[in-house]
Structures are given as C-alpha cells and as structure tokens.
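Researcher: Here's the sequence for the chain we discussed earlier.
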Amino acid sequence: MVTKALNKEPLNAHDKYSFDLPPIQNQEDWEKLLHKTWTDAENFASLIEQLPESKLGETFFVEKYGDYYRNLHGIIEHTHYHLGQIVLIKKILLQEQKRT
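Model: Thanks. This is the structure I predict for it:
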C-alpha cells in the first residue's frame, strides 16, 4: 500500500489486506510469490531512492501517521523483525533435521 501511495495513489492501507494472498498449493505458486515479493521490494526501494531528502520531514498523507521518515523507517524495522523470525525458524528446522 505504501508503494501505491508513493506512486501518488490514495493511501488505502488496512490490516484486513495483510494476508490477502492466493493460497500456495505447489512450487510454482511459491516461486510466483517469491518473484512478486522481490519485484515489489525493488520497486519500493526505487521509489524511496527517488524521494527528495526534504520530503522525509513532511507529513505522511495524514498527520496522525507522522512524517515520511517515521513511516519508511518503521517499514524497514518491521522487515528486519520478520527476517529475524525467518532466521530463527530456519535454525530450529536445521536443528530438527540434525536430530533425525
């Protein structure tokens, strides 16, 4: 949603869209999701690179959301949080494989 907003579309973010994905039923579905994720990340990074530094202190669409810096930094922190979860899950899975 933030990518759309950075593309001058209305900010329409709701938690109900957080898991609005088609089911993954096979390897092809998984590969499509990975491709979309990487493509979306590249597009998002490109939009951030294009933002003038002066924009970071401006209100992020609505005053209650704070400024651009707060929101972009929050997205980065949130992503790191989930990456940490993935690392921990991978470690647990590897430990389980070693036991069997």
